[in-house]
Design goal:
single chain, alpha+beta, 37% helix
Length: 233
């Protein structure tokens, strides 16, 4: 029964996310959509780096991360039955410390219970383990299911926080209306956006071919890659 409930939750979250994606105009992704996401991801990264409270923690954990998933806008809302969804970019770091070109992913979740209203957040997920990165690349995954997640440490002192909570696959940081949200996005589903990958690189590629095998590149993403390189020096 617990396994059935888990699978049902994944299916519901995926359906909610799919509905959000299909409702977005235009339904078919184009190169401009992809380029805008990459540019916005760079702004989100810089915003979190410069955040007066979160910045030092983000930088400390970013230096240890295997990959990052940056979602410039995660929309959340609903009445009784709610959901959240957004699209972002995944970049991985190789053994020499070089950041890959981005692969496009969507993230979403469904929720039930007393709730009302909406919110837009900017999200940075730090993928701390190789197994976590591989799980994301192989298939649709759920945080709290195939991936262990936790809210990024904050406010406990930098020296202490950078040595704790490293036994999870993903650490999350997010801001909404300038405020930190201490959530770990439990129950969120992460899945690839093949149409955006194809629009950005001009051919259909698996995410693994982009972020691990280096089979594609786009100079438009170099500013984001440089920003990540600067942040991890």
């Amino acid at each position: 029964m617990p396994l059935l409930k888990t699978r049902l939750a994944v299916v519901i979250a995926a359906l909610m996310l799919a509905a959000a994606v299909l409702a977005a105009p235009p339904a078919k992704a184009d190169q401009a959509d992809a380029e805008e996401l990459v540019t916005e991801a760079q702004f989100t990264l810089k915003k979190l780096q410069k955040h007066p409270d979160l910045g030092p923690y983000v930088k400390a954990y970013l230096k240890r991360a295997k990959a990052v998933l940056i979602v410039p806008q995660l929309l959340k809302g609903g009445f009784i039955v709610g959901g959240e969804g957004g699209t972002g970019v995944l970049l991985a770091r190789d053994e020499q410390g070089r950041w890959s070109y981005p692969a496009f992913y969507s993230m979403g979740a469904a929720s039930f219970g007393l709730q009302f209203g909406g919110q837009a957040s900017e999200v940075l997920l730090l993928v701390m383990t190789g197994s976590g990165l591989q799980a994301i690349l192989e298939d649709m995954v759920k945080i709290g299911g195939e991936l262990d997640g936790a809210a990024g440490p904050y406010g406990a002192g930098l020296d202490a926080s950078t040595t704790t909570n490293l036994n999870v696959d993903i650490l999350s940081y997010s801001v909404a209306q300038g405020l930190y949200i201490g959530v770990n996005f439990e129950g969120s589903v992460i899945l690839p956006r093949d149409s955006l990958n194809e629009a950005y690189y001009g051919r259909r590629l698996a995410p693994e071919a982009i972020v691990l095998q280096g089979q594609a590149g786009n100079p438009h993403a170099d500013l984001l890659r440089d920003a990540l390189a600067d942040a991890t020096r």
